[in-house]
Design goal:
Layout (H helix, E strand, L loop, with lengths): L15 H9 L2 H10 L7 H21 L4 H20 L3 H21 L7 H24 L8 H24 L3 E3 L3 E5 H19 L7 H29 L14 H5 L2 H16 L2
Antiparallel strand pairs: 1-2
């Protein structure tokens, strides 16, 4: 008589929520320290942002050309070049030089590579758009760090982006009935969107207590602007992922996906915050 061999019980992995928390929590103190670190560590924050740009651009190019490492690498390098130029230079000629490199690179790749012509226009669009979308938007996360007081406006930007995103999720889940953009993201609702904007305004008002240059009226306006920009960025990224047939932009952050999956709202909220702080508040 053969006795059945008992199999050891399967180890259960972390749930989705637990995995997301376990991934992010250890990074929070490091990120906050880099945001507020002064000399001689002032360079760490822009370096961190440039690294995020490199990975995010590589992910974005991979949606169109998952098998072409060269194409993905070129898109990543030009995105870093564009972001670096915006962060560390103040002259229009430097920005124009970076744009020329992006254009000439896209032209050279299109003319010299033996790639199919039927999707050449799409490939050119990705080569031109990736540096601007990833490098141009995430550079603002580094730029707002220079607003007074140092680092606080970065925290404000994160509150606007992720506070709105989180509130929209939970409000929409509880009260959502009217679809916001069913063709793009069927689960998002107008009620959730309104809840997200409300949370962004509340977050901005709370942050304004610690930001001397941001009064209550400005906080309300920026909360609406930043919250709306973040929601638009989320929807924009959903369009890109759906058109590319992927669920996540990457897998570097377990439970979250890729860099762009976490930074899609931030990528639009940061430029909106920088523009408001620079042109309206006067930094």
């Amino acid at each position: 008589m053969n006795d059945a061999i008992e199999q050891p019980p399967m180890k259960k992995g972390l749930s989705g929520t637990a995995l997301r928390v376990a991934t992010v929590v250890p990074l929070i103190p490091i990120i906050i320290w880099m945001m507020f670190a002064g000399p001689p560590w002032h360079w760490l924050w822009p370096t961190f942002i440039l690294a995020a740009v490199a990975i995010g651009a590589y992910e974005l190019m991979g949606m169109h050309a998952p098998s072409s490492r060269g194409l993905r690498s070129w898109g990543s390098m030009t995105a870093v070049l564009f972001a670096y130029t915006l962060i560390f230079t103040t002259t229009a000629s430097a920005v124009y030089g970076a744009v020329l490199v992006i254009i000439l690179g896209a032209m050279a790749w299109t003319l010299l590579q033996d790639d199919p012509l039927d999707d050449a226009s799409v490939r050119v669009g990705w080569l031109l758009g990736t540096p601007v979308y990833v490098g141009g938007t995430l550079a603002a996360v580094a730029l707002v760090r220079d607003f007074d007081p140092t680092g606080a406006w970065v925290l404000l930007t994160m509150v606007l982006a992720w506070g709105s995103d989180t509130a929209a999720y939970f409000v929409g889940r509880k009260f959502g009935k009217t679809k916001l953009a069913p063709r793009i993201s069927p689960k998002k609702t107008l009620e959730g969107s309104a809840g997200g904007l409300g949370a962004a305004v509340v977050g901005a008002l709370i942050m304004s207590l610690f930001l001397p240059g941001l009064g209550p009226i400005d906080a309300i306006a920026l909360g609406i602007l930043g919250g709306a920009a973040g929601q638009a960025g989320d929807l924009f990224m959903s369009v890109l992922k759906r058109s590319s047939g992927v669920k996540d932009s990457g897998g570097i952050l377990p439970g979250h996906g890729g860099i762009l999956d976490r930074a899609d709202a931030l990528a639009f909220t940061a430029p909106a915050t920088w523009a408001y702080g620079h042109f309206i508040v006067g930094f």
